[in-house]
Amino acid sequence: MKPLAEHKTRLILEEGCLDKKGELLLSLGERALILTGKNGAVRSGALADAIAALSANDQTFRIFDKISENPTTEVCREAAKEALNARADFILAIGGGSVMDAGKLVALLAATGEESGIDGFTDDLLYSADLSEAACLPIAVVGTTAGTGSEVTNIAVLTRNDGTKKGISAPCLYPAIAFADTRYTESMSPLTTCSTGLDALCHLLESYFSEEFDPRAEAICLEGISLAVGNLLHLQESEAYAKRSEFRKKMHKASLLGGYAIDLCRTAFPHMAGYALTEKTGLPHGLATALFLPVHLALAEEFMPERAQKMEKECGFSCQDISKLADSLVLSWLFVGDWHLSEDLLHGEEGRYETAANRKRTPSVPDAEELLDLAKERLSLVLSS
């Protein structure tokens, strides 16, 4: 896989990359703040490998392990203060998309240089400021899941103090180095494997069928769609297939391709609609997003027929084929957890649908009321299944 020539992140995609290329971290500084969750970085072996690489470089580090799924801006402020106290030169985020996204915000906040600056960077300011000239501490990431593609984007999606999820982006948020070792994804649970895989698929399809499509993403999307759909079809047949190294490698590659795709095209309707379910019930992000994917694909088939036909010709899957696959995988997990799903979860979402840029990337750019009605119809249909 060749990353875009002009991309700002140096991607190291190989087994043992921290051991073989860990000296690259020396370019970022002498002291690191390692950001992790409670379990994933340890269970995958990535944290031990990162510590070994830093130690071999004679770099010092401090660990902040309070990052949870759907991290809050508040915990990022706490971590940024820890970075100041540790006099960290750079942030090393080890985990899934939540940890990597948090690492980006921590790097931005810590660059203010003082705790008062961190506290002064309120949610209102963070989400209204022009960050095009913002400065960050250097960021390195080590991914332990295969879905978000956050390794190669300048996007960070966090949960604000009001409980809603919203993304920020800035040139400085690109990781300087991304270590991508597929072995670290092997410790994912079956639920996380399915959910993150669906997230990768949504990234690729929302980018390919976007009203703001960037032609540079075409080959990326088509290759990623082929990989993701083929892999998820095997997963649909048997969870045991996920234990194969071939599955992990292909899904990891699809995830990174999805990251490159959304870096160029961003996300559309499924992500916007899925946020409400994750915010209000804790439903995993990939499942919540993929639940609405068939609506996006139906709009694509109607309003972007040439693109849909090209995808089917190049990848061997139609929009309807992929919708059926997404439905099957979502429904296989939807009623397993204690997520208290109900049709009223989309009540009060009018403001999000009016203002979110995601809607403007959705095929035909439906008005907010029309798109919210489609989302409600879809949720009702799924819950009655």
Quick recap:
Helix content is 53%, strand content 10%. With 385 residues, the chain is of the alpha/beta class. It folds into 2 domains: 10-184, Rossmann fold; 188-383, Up-down Bundle (Dehydroquinate synthase-like, alpha domain).
Supply the key terms.
18 helices, 10% strand, two-stranded antiparallel sheet, Dehydroquinate synthase-like, alpha domain, 385 residues, globular, 53% helix, 2 domains, Rossmann fold, alpha/beta
Describe this structure in words.
The protein is built from 18 helices and eight strands. With 385 residues, the chain is α/β, with parallel strands linked by helices. The chain has two domains: 10-184, 3-Layer(aba) Sandwich (Rossmann fold); 188-383, Up-down Bundle (Dehydroquinate synthase-like, alpha domain). The protein has a six-stranded parallel beta sheet, sandwiched between helices. A two-stranded antiparallel sheet has the order 6-7. Strand 6 (155-159) and strand 7 (165-169) form a beta hairpin. Helix 8 packs across helix 12. The longest helix is centred in the middle third of the chain and has 21 residues, at 245-265. The radius of gyration is 20 Å and the shape is globular. The two termini are 39 Å apart.
Instruction: Give a short account of the largest sheet.
Output: 6 strands, parallel
Approximately how much helix is present in the residues?
40-55%
Give the strand tally: 8
* CATH class category of the largest domain: Mainly Alpha
The CATH homologous superfamily of the largest domain is named Dehydroquinate synthase-like - alpha domain
Task: Tell me the distance between the termini.
Answer: 39 Å
Shape verdict: globular
* Helix and strand sequence: EHEHHEHEHHHEEEEHHHHHHHHHHH
